[in-house]
Write a structure and sequence with these properties.
Length: 147
């Protein structure tokens, strides 16, 4: 069973930590659990996220940090945000959760900066799989699907 442990005077979270890069999205899903279709554009400030996570890392360690939104690929400074998360030392593993529709226009550096990309697939929506096939040699690409 995954439980929190104190190791080297830091709380270790085996389940992960989430960072909202943006609140808005490029889709308008009625069942959105983040209310992204009605949220105005908002972007997390990479430097502030870095400062907060660096401070947190003094007493906390996470199995991973998942960067999500809304749609995180809408963030114009996404690679800066990812760099700040990595440099904070709060985790060694960074996951990007995306609907994948903007992957083909993402900064090429993105693929080397994250450890895993999780694609959200929607039965009635367009498929992002063609958008990421050419670049998927870097991090693993997973598509959580509930049946």
């Amino acid at each position: 069973m995954d439980q929190y442990h104190v190791i080297d005077d830091r709380m270790h979270n085996p389940k992960g930590l989430e960072v909202n890069a943006v609140l808005h999205c490029n889709l308008r899903c009625r069942s959105c659990s983040h209310l992204s279709p009605v949220m105005p554009p908002w972007f997390a400030e990479p430097e502030q996220v870095g400062r907060d996570l660096t401070r947190l890392a003094r007493s906390y360690r996470s199995a991973n940090v998942k960067i999500l939104g809304g749609e995180p690929l809408l963030h114009p400074g996404l690679t800066d945000l990812i760099r700040e998360v990595r440099e904070s030392a709060v985790t060694d593993k960074i996951i990007l959760a995306t609907n994948g529709l903007l992957l083909s226009s993402a900064d090429d550096r993105l693929w080397a900066m994250v450890d895993r990309i999780e694609l959200s697939l929607y039965p009635a929506g367009p498929s992002p799989m063609g958008n990421c096939a050419a670049s998927a040699a870097g991090p693993s690409v997973t598509a959580p699907i509930s049946r």
